[in-house]
């Protein structure tokens, strides 16, 4: 039925292949080019986005990411707060699709960061004092 068996002879393997390789077209919008296409546009089909550009919050993600990508502010993306807020609000409506980091883990990370900061600052003071 669905399978087809083809036997290759020794002679079949001795003749060079007639397969032709086609050069990649850099303007092919369906070709995986990475996150940024050669013309500077965002490649929404890039697997690196993990499907964020589709789904129930895809439009909010595209809006926020586009704003950040094209931002010319001194602090890049500082003009995109509203778009990121809309994206976050959307994602919170779908916790199964967009799992949030556990609040306890967040608090632990924050407290570890705060604990590390004073130690680093005091170490820097000691270094300055000893020179």
Care to describe what's here?
This protein is mainly α. The chain has a domain at 52-99: Helix Hairpins, CATH 1.10.287. Helices cover 44% and strands 0% of the residues. The protein is built from four helices and no strands. The chain has helices spanning 10-14, 58-70, 81-92, 103-130. α2 packs antiparallel against α3. The protein is elongated. It starts with 9 loop residues before the first helix and ends with a helix. The model is unreliable at 118-126 (pLDDT under 50). Residues 22-31 have a biased composition (Acidic residues). One of its GO terms (cellular component) is mitochondrial intermembrane space.
Can you identify the CATH class of the domain at 52-99?
Mainly Alpha
- Coarse shape: elongated
Number of DSSP strand runs:
0
Structural class: mainly alpha
| Oligomeric state, counting identical vs distinct chains | single chain
User: Which strand-content bin applies to the residues?
Assistant: under 5%
* Total DSSP helices: 4
Main sheet?
Answer: none
What integer is the average pLDDT? 77
Low-confidence stretches: 118-126
What order do the helices and strands follow? HHHH
CATH architecture of the domain at 52-99: Orthogonal Bundle
| CATH third-level topology of the domain at 52-99 | Helix Hairpins
Radius of gyration: 26 Å
Q: What is the percent of helical residues?
A: 40-55%
First-residue to last-residue Cα separation:
83 Å
